[in-house]
Each structure stands twice: as structure tokens, then as C-alpha cells.
Amino acid sequence: MVDTPLIDKETAADRSAIVRLHNKGEFWKPCPGTTQGYLCCGYQILTPSTGCGMYCKYCILQAYFPYQCQILFDNFDDLEKEVHSKLSNRSEVVRFGTGEFGDSLYSENKTGVARKIAELLEPYPNVIVEFKTKSTNIEPLKTIRKPEKVIIGFSLNTPTMIERMESGTAPLEQRLKTAAQCIEMGFYVAFHFDPMFIYKNWESEYRNVVRNIFKKISDPTRIAWVSMGGFRTMPALKNLLKQKNDHLNLFSGEMITGMDGKLRYFRPLRTALYRAMAQEFEIHYPEITLYLCMESPEIWKDSGMKKRIPDGLVRYLDNRAQVILGAP
What we know:
The chain has 328 residues and is an alpha/beta fold. The protein has 13 helices and 17 strands. The chain is 36% helix and 20% strand.
């Protein structure tokens, strides 16, 4: 439960505004991914703040939250206590992330949240944390003492989709350049192609993004993992955008309702997306830890990806985390 006093209408609509509130509920929750026929990665979500100063048309948060401003929870000490308590008896690998309900780094200069999370988790040898972003705001992270325990995850898309869908975000080339800088700073990086879109020339453009990754990243062993997910969303987003007459770019084609209630591309379209990307990654770095986000075993098989997870998706990613945590 979040203590939500009335936020005035102007502030609530201002994405650049940062409002301090008290969180009475849990800060640590498992990834909300459904298990209804789809494979979940076993990610653990920390939520010290919510919201994002950028605007992606496909972002479900605009329909999920009653406000568009950023929220910074002012009881970080409760987050610390919860994490220490829950980690006290856990010896297995724990993969944390803070980017489920907002961009992890966009407002780091003002909040310092990522640095505080990194410091909090630093003493735990079995814990790794990922900060996901569409920004290039990495300068504040230079004070993190153990960057090797931190992954900077960049959400990627084609330049066409970034221009159409991702207002205020960093251009693709800047994201890739920043990822290379993160590696120089001692961090691992990750890339997330989620959501991916079907549109004219999608295959050549997505493949070109993969090629550009390996032009910018000279040491691919510093890529922690790469995820892929076709565009999917709750119907509430379509209804919201329809009110603004701004829904056609996202919902002009036919979609199905999946087992989780989300609108998705048809199975053959999703398979084609993933197969093309997997082929391109195989060309450049076959050892890449590549996975699908919230997809069925059938899609894993049809796209040629199932061979990557003989022991399951969670074990696949835990094994990669263990390698990173054990690296000198």
C-alpha cells in the first residue's frame, strides 16, 4: 500500500515532477510475470521509486498508475530492513532489478536511488542488481564501489520505433555508446529488445541494431544477457490511447488475447521476430545469454531458442549471474 495524499492535477500530469510519498507495503516482490503458460525469468523487483520522465507510447504505466509524475518513496530505511531480513537466509543467487515501474537512471542525479541500492546490496556475494534505462545518465554511477556486481540494462529498439514511440529517450547510437562507457567503468551491460514491433522493414532494421551492438561493444563477454519480447499489453492501454485518438500505430494490425489476458501478436509473427534475432546473434556471438520474456514453451521451440534452456529459464539466468559474480 502506498500512502497517496491528494496530488494536484498539474503535478500529477507532470512527468518531470518528483513527489515524495510513504510506501506502507513491500518494496521487494517477485517479477509479476504470469505462469499461465509462459516462462518467467525469476527476476526480483525492488521498487524504491516509480514513474519516468520520458514518454513511451506503449508504456502500460500510463494506464496502471493514476498519476504520471515520478514518485520517490521517502522511507528507504524500511526498504533496507526488508532486504536485509529477506536475504539473511538466502544463499542462492538473487537477481534484482529496479526498472519494472519506472526508469532506473533517468532521475538519478536528483534521487541517488541507484547508488543507494548498489551500496545496500554490495555486501551480499550472491546478489546482483540491474538498473534498466533508456537514458544515458551514467555519470552519477561513478561512485559505486563494486561495479562488477551491477548490470546496466539498456532497452533497445530500432531508430524507426524510437522516433515513433519513445519521446524524450536517448537515440539508439547514444545508448550503445553509453553501454560501451559502462563497460569501461567496470559494469556489465544488458540489452532488452522489449517490446519488439512488426512493421515494414522490421527484420532488416532489428538485425542492424544487433550488428551495431557488436560494433560498439568490443568485449561481448561483458554483456550479461539479452532479452526479447514482442509487443504485448493489457487492453486498458488500447482504451486509454483510443481516447486520445493515438492508438493506430500500436493497434492497427490484428492481435490475439493471450492466456494472461494481454493483447499479443499472432504466434507466427512472434516466432519470426525471435528467430531472426537469434540468427543474427548467433552470427556475431553464439555464446550470448539470450532469452525470451514471457513466452510459451511452444514459441521457444518454434523460434529455435529452446536449446538454450535445457534446465529451465531461471537456471539459465542464475548460471549466468553466478559466472558474473564469480568473475575477478
